[in-house]
Specification:
215 residues, 8 strands, binds cytidine-5'-monophosphate, Rossmann fold, alpha/beta, 8 helices
């Protein structure tokens, strides 16, 4: 079974996707982390806007496990270097190039093949795996999403400002929604869950029930 979990930044998709991966014992693909890895490699290799596709010729390797996606570049595990807002910003900029999205989606499809997995990403159910067995779209108010992101970054040791994060979230939502090709929106057959006032366990229970129904 392939389960896609889409949603905007801070909607809780990573936390939920990892927990579902754990409970079902199937691998977890965090597509945002791979976007971030390509952005990071573009940054360190100094690739210009017109050259971003070259990043797919570089030695990037993705390893999947239960509740775990790790990215290696030239044998080095770079997964812990990808959490900053700077890397996220570049990722969201290169994500606006249709040719880049086509290429990275191909990469995801060949990485996963017929494997069972939980796939997390903004367009996992619309463009990466349009035939997924269950598509979940998580959402929450921008303020709640900024609060969660703030708490997360603070706990990871980053110096952060709530208002700045809220601004960045709103800006990124707008950029992601206004892409002429592949604008960010739920798949027509996605189940939309607004998590603003929900506890994590409630969200997990709801997703597990949906999986049982489809199973
Ligand atoms: O999910 P995360 O915030 O780590 O992703 C970083 C950026 O990569 C997003 O803001 C988005 O612009 C882009 N992205 C995307 N499609 C995905 C995953 C990430 O456009 N499936």
């Amino acid at each position: 079974m392939k389960i896609t979990i889409d949603g905007p930044a801070g909607s809780g998709k990573s936390t939920v996707a990892k927990e579902i991966s754990r409970r079902l014992g199937i691998p977890y693909l965090n597509t945002g982390l791979v976007y971030r890895a390509t952005a990071y490699v573009c940054m360190i290799e100094g690739l210009e806007e017109g050259e971003v596709l070259k990043v797919f010729d570089s030695p990037i390797r993705v390893e999947l496990g239960i509740a775990r996606t790790e990215v290696f570049y030239k044998q080095e595990n770079i997964s812990d270097k990808l959490g900053s807002e700077d890397v996220g910003k570049i990722a969201s900029q290169i994500a606006t190039f249709p040719a880049f999205r086509e290429r990275i989606n191909q990469f995801f499809r060949s990485l996963m093949g017929e494997k069972q997995a939980v796939i997390e990403g903004r367009d996992a159910g619309t463009h990466i795996f349009p035939n997924a067995d269950l598509k979940i779209f998580l959402t929450a108010s921008p303020e709640e999403r900024a609060r969660r992101r703030y708490e997360q970054l603070k706990s990871e040791g980053f110096q952060v400002d709530y208002q700045e994060i809220l601004r960045a979230i709103i800006e990124r939502d707008q950029r992601d929604a206004s892409r002429p090709l592949y604008p960010f929106k739920p798949a027509e057959d996605a189940v939309i869950i607004d998590t603003t006032d929900m506890k994590l366990e409630e969200v997990i229970e709801k997703v597990l029930n949906l999986i049982k129904e489809r199973g």
